[in-house]
Amino acid sequence: MNQSRSSSPFSVPEIRYHNTGVRGMLPETKGTCPYLYFPAFREIEEIIHGFSTRLGGVSEGDLSSMNLSFSRGDKPENVRTNYQRVAEAIGFQTDQVVCTVQTHTTNVKKVSAADRGNGLARPQAFHDVDGLITDSPGVILTAFFADCVPLFLIDPVHHAIGLSHSGWKGTAAQMGRVTIECMREHFGSDPAELYAGIGPSICRDCYEVSEEVIEAFRGSYPSDRMDSFVKTGKRKGKYQLDLWEANRQLFLLSGLQKDHIFLPNICTCCNPEVLFSHRASQGRRGNLAAFLGLRDTQ
Questions:
Q1: Per-residue pLDDT reduced to its tens digit, 114-157
Q2: Which range marks the domain in which residue 99 is found?
Q3: How far apart are CA 116 and CA 282, in angstroms?
Q4: pLDDT for 38 beyond 70
Q5: Helix axis angle, 243-253 relative to 175-187, nearest 10°?
Q6: Are 171 and 247 in contact (CB under 8 A)?
Q7: Are 203 and 267 in contact, with CB atoms under 8 Å apart?
Q8: What CATH number has the domain bearing residue 119?
Q9: Closest CA to 258 of 192, 178, 180
Q10: Does residue 19 lie within any of the structural domains?
């Protein structure tokens, strides 16, 4: 993480980057808490955003150390301490967080300031929800990951945002498009004006899947688009699935401008010392989190 702008002496393992250009995420460390960010999103003054690493927290064992999920068997006090640390690093308060119970759906919920603290400062009320949208300042949308794809969406014209969890099931069911349509319905968002970030997740080289998975995509994507993200696998009857490119193609099909889409450049499975990966750890892991909010200027 020698690209970090921080002067912190905290030692962080080197990140392995993919050759997807210079439009990816970069690391930053504040105190002992490293996180990732999109440089392009830093240019939008009203946006708060970040993506956690597995480092800088207090969780132990397979959850070491920045686990941000209460559902992985961690001590609740450890999870709360971890939230406090990552919130201080990125620049928000823990009582601003809104999170949900994710179940690989394409259900998207509009939230407001009245929902602040859901799932962290107060009991969880949102189940079977994998996407959140808001136009309320001071709300920090939160979603959890350990190989699946974080989808950040920003509408700087209508001052609205969306954050979605999209694994292979969500990507095959076009979670990105569903989130955009919800933003259009509730906020009047024009896809041509949106900015999208595809966050750290498993890369094509690490993601071998079966014919059943590819079949789920065939009914949702044009064949010429699928050619760009499905390759013959290393073993007979298997395929290498590029979820980054699949979501990029979905954003293009949804009307986003090419230069408004940012790829992560970082694979969770290639970086098990820095990021939690379900596949790399064979399920013995904690959860990473993506955060996205509109600054409360009042």
A1: 999 999 999 999 999 999 999 999 999 999 999 999 999 999 99
A2: 26-202+260-294
A3: 34
A4: yes
A5: 40
A6: yes
A7: yes
A8: 3.60.140.10
A9: 192
A10: no
